[in-house]
Amino acid sequence: xxxxxxxxxxxxxxxxxxxxxxxxxxxxxxxxxxxxxxxxxxxxxxxxxxxxxxxxxxxxxxxxxxxxxxxxxxxxxxxxxxxxxxxxxxxxxxxxxxxxxxxxxxxxxxxxxxxxxxxxxxxxxxxxxxxxxxxxxxxxxxxxxxxxxxxxxx
Length: 154
Fold this sequence. Notes:
By secondary structure, the chain is of the alpha+beta class. The chain has one domain: Sandwich (Immunoglobulin-like). 18% of the residues lie in helices and 31% in strands. The protein has two helices and eight strands, in the order αββββββαββ. It has helices spanning 2-21, 92-99; strands at residues 30-36, 39-40, 43-50, 59-64, 67-70, 79-87, 133-140, 150-152. A hairpin with a 2-residue loop joins strand 1 (30-36) and strand 2 (39-40). The longest helix is centred in the N-terminal third of the chain and has 20 residues, at 2-21. The protein is elongated. Residues 1-25 have low confidence and may be disordered.
């Protein structure tokens, strides 16, 4: 009787553990390019967060020289996601966005590395914040299409 219970408990534990690992195998690779006003995103990050009602995992990877790549180990599962693309404010492109076309600082940066900054002088408070991130929606298709380019506008 004890042997039978032990066998049953071990069998149930095995089923539970095999069920937990199954979802990692369903992740998909995804790759593509990211441009801002036609220029490659030099350095940044792309994150995919499942929208409410979708139980897939979140996925994050870096963007280098205009390209990003998720693998089957860190990629998303099929379904709808909120996508956030960030420019690294410390990159040349990020600094250029912050400084604006005239070379003077447009406004305090906002983005992935932003922290608490001192208040801006009154003359700069109504100036538009430089755009260092974009948020959009994308649905990862079930058919296994693994390429998606993002063309962003500032």
